[in-house]
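Issue 218. Parser rejects a valid record. Input:
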Amino acid sequence: MSNGELLKADVVIISIGVQPNVDLAKKAGLQISASSGGIMVDRHMRLRNDSDILACGDCAMKVSYFSGMPVKTWLASVATHEARLAAANLFETRYPGLGTTGVFSTEFGDLAIGAAGLIERQASQDGYHIVVGTAKAPSRHPGGMPGAVPTTVKLIFSKDDGILLGGEASGGAGVGELVNVISACLQHGMTAYEVSLFQMGTHPALCASPIAYQVVNAAEEAVMKLQ
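Output the parser choked on:
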């Protein structure tokens, strides 16, 4: 530390951030977002000041699915989504992007974590009145089955209309697909009630019990709070 104190640690993570490499774009006179540092594009991935040029990936500006404002979400999954958009709109305008929901997952040792959309802190900072539902269950059923890992899902809903704003998950390897499910619910504007009726396929060796499926049970808890 700055005072000379030594701290023992098993792992040290140095997060210094990233910045889009837009030197070539600047030299070409392309518009750069002052807030995110990315090349300014519309929802079809065309440049704001030259519709004959398309840009995608980490060098291109991202906008939030929720607010439409620029965000700094640089992920491989976002870049490939933008590449599909750019390719689809290359010769004609076919469809716009919806903005990034910020889906991600990662793993530290045996612990996997992930999130989609707004986390609880961000939703509150953005001015939403929220209701939170949480559910925890083994990743396989019964819980004593080999390989079963306690898995928790937290869902954040708007208190005003019940629409899903985001979700978080932690547990084992299945967390990656759980947050993908949450993202799908987000993009379809599902409410807590609709998520609570979500029909899932289950198998003892693959996921939680149908009576303890975390996404559904977290939504059910939120429904009770909304009522």
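Fixed in the parser; the record now loads. Residues 181 and 215 are 9 Å apart (CA to CA).
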